[in-house]
Amino acid sequence: MERKHIKYFDYLRSLGVFLVVYLHVASPIISGDIYVNSIVRSILIVLSTIGYTAVPLFFMMSGYLILTDSKTEKVTVLLKHRIVHLIVPLIFWSCLVTLWVMWKNDDMLLCSFIKYMLSVFSTPIMQHLWYVYTLIAIYLLSPILYVAINNLNGQGKKYLFVLIIFIFLQSMVSAIVPDDIKDIIAVAPLAELRFLKGHLCTFILGYFLGSMKRHIPNLILISVGFIDLLLISSSTIFITLEDSYTGKIQDQSAGFAVLLAACIFLFFKQNLDSVESKVNIVPFVQMSFGIYLMHNLLNRIFSYIGWEVEGIISVGVKMGGIILICCIILKTLATCKITCFLATGVSFLKANETFNWRYTINKFLKV
Questions:
Q1: Is the distance from CB of 246 to CB of 239 less than 8 angstroms?
Q2: What is the domain count for the chain?
Q3: What confidence tens digit (pLDDT) does each residue in 145-179 have?
Q4: pTM
Q5: Ranges for the Acyltransferase domain (predicted)?
């Protein structure tokens, strides 16, 4: 039986893609590599605080989808389908990034290519790809997680939820206290439970948030989210202007970004699950993984040829340009049977039904 389509996930995925691209486009200004006045930099830091919720949102959505699907306990489904949908596009885009790096370094030798590609097994060839590595690791555990969590009784699930909250609370405290006392106040057992830098907890948290029946008033979600946003942003701006940018409190594993992501997740769940979009966003959603994989390569190429950002407007223009070009390239690659799955992780049949140029032409002809 097919799972009912979760509409608010489409909105969350779309938001997440824009936020991730924004983070990497605005990064040179936020980190101080490109100088702008403090007001512009502060505004971009506030927006980047929201941007850091993208990966936690992706983990939460995956957590809910994986841990509520009975197919998850079947190892054959994991190895033949789910892992393949992640690994194949990862290798494909890692190859392209490798070729770009080699060309930029004037090192187009076969031995260099082999060396780079062998390193892909241990280290992401480009920084943003860490998320896919972590997601693959969690997927490998997913059959065990599914059976363990779904066989817990109500009390056991409450215990697990509270335990995750305490793990994140410790992460929050560790992020805001000085480094010289961080180890003193740390609770070692909780610190040891931060598997995969806390992202496993975010993954499982998505299961609980997606399954939650209780309605939390929007005013509470907005208030908690705003206070959290204010705390993260003001602290980061203060540290940045006084010393230099670190992003320590913004970090996805610090807990504060996860809290903000949880507020966004629940707000979308409670308000957008029955809202029909006036614009068909399904094609964009289907390309979201491909956009995530390729956007930073385009960003680096554009920076290399001289397209740098200089302020808020230029960040928006470059961000929009990257997303548009990603969509054009992915739609084109998905129109070819050979490159479709390699580039997107989506089957050629599904691409024909949801987002490639064949789909677009068929939709146009039916109008």
A1: yes
A2: 1
A3: 999 999 999 999 999 999 999 999 988 888 888 77
A4: 0.94
A5: 7-329
